Amino acid sequence: MRVxxxxxxxxxxxxxxxxxxxxxxxxxxxxxxxxxxxxxxVNDHVHDVQDAPIVTGMDDVEAQVDALLIGIxxxxxxxxxxxxxxxxxxxxxxxxxxxxxHYFLSEDEEFTALADEYDxxxxxxxxxxxxxxxxxxxxxxxxxxxxxxxxxxxxxxxMTVSMELARDAQEAGYDAAVIPTGQTGIMIEGWGNPxxxxxxxxxxxxxxxxxxxKGNDHDYLFVEGQGSIIHPAYSAVTCGILHGxxxxxxxxxxxxxxxxxxxxxxxxxxxxxxxVDLYExxxxxxxxxxxxxxxxxxxxxSEEDAQATVEEYEAALGAPATDPVRYGTDELLEVLL
Length: 337
What we know:
alpha/beta, Rossmann fold, six-stranded parallel beta sheet, 11 helices, 14 strands, globular
């Protein structure tokens, strides 16, 4: 499928959905929409993803497009009215629109009318299905080894690490799969439950459902984590995933240089050892799991600084750690598989 990705004023640093799709999805990306970096190309900013021209808006996309994908997710998941002309133009061109926002396009009167008129589909990725329920506490009974990425904060690379580990494990001959729990993972894999959108009582159950669906078909499941256990807004989602997945092993993800919670800078991040204790102690009563490996995002650092940062993180963690995008996953897979 040929797609254009909307990432206005956020590409690349704050467009993690766009980057995830560019890096891992099977879509043919024909353009990225970003008013601030228009006139450049994706690979001018990020080298290890699919390349595409960056343009000002849908009116500047000359290639045939099957869908417009909203590749940014602001805090709260709201819809920016400045995006409306691009979504309108996409629908008028007969394009489907894929959105991971909490604002459902399928409930927008203008968009639904245009979708009906031009025979388009509005796919709200974060809309959960109607049959979710509470956890039964049985995820640990599946045959697969379950590995969950957890974080020191939101937007530290949990989805990226899950994808890198699963794909490298597959390439090495292991029977591995990704369990998508967020909008980006669902867009890439084409299935999953949007855990941060479900009723609170059903959070763990929504993850357990995914584990049970794939747990006897694969040897390893890499579960995409969300948020952080200390995050003042998202900790409930993190805890729900931890208890619903009942993982065997944990991978702690961190962003180099991050000292405070993103968007909540009055909340400093605790020490790495504190995170290890918190995650392991919280998992213990439901399904014991250890932090067996770590991943750190060194994007933007020089090679020398990145290597030093990885070594420091590994020492603080007391377990093998690396930047999977920069250095690969061999060290991590050796202890996880």
